[in-house]
User: Fold this.
Amino acid sequence: MENCIFCKIIKGEIPAAKVYESDKFLAFLDISPCNKGHTLIIPKEHYVSLNEIPNEDGKEFGELQIKLAKSVMEATNAGGFNLLLNDGKVAGQEVMHAHLHIQPRFNTDEFSYKWTHTKYEEGEIQKFQDKIKEFLQ
Ligand code: AMP
Assistant:
C-alpha cells in the first residue's frame, strides 16, 4: 500500500527502531509511546485487520507476542504490561495496517484504560455465549 506508513517502514523507506524481523512479521518501537519501550508487532503483508492474518501465521504471531512481552518487561524493568490491538476506526485504530501494541507498565505511570461497563439483561449472556460459539465452528 503506497501511503501506508507501516508499509514504508517494512520497505525501509522511513526509519524505525526495529527489534525483530522475520519473513512474516516486524516489531519496532512506537514513535510516540505510552511508556518507553512501547513496542508494535505488525504483519509484513498489508492487512488492515487482525482477522485477515492467515491461520498458518498465527503460531508465529502468538509466540512472538509472548517472547516480546517478556523481552520488553526485562528491558524496561516494567511491573507489568498491556497488550492492545485497536481493530477498526470505531475501536480507535489510526494506522490502518494491523498492529499489536505491547505497552510496558509502571506503578508510577499515569496511563490507564477506562471504560464504562454495561449489563446483560436476564438470559442475554447465554444468547451471546451461544452465538459466539456458533461462529467459532
Ligand atoms: P493505533 O491508534 O492503534 O492505530 O496506533 C498507531 C500507533 O502507531 C500509535 O501509537 C503511533 O504512535 C504509532 N506510530 C505511528 N507512526 C509511527 C512510526 N513512523 N513509527 C513508529 N510508530 C508509529
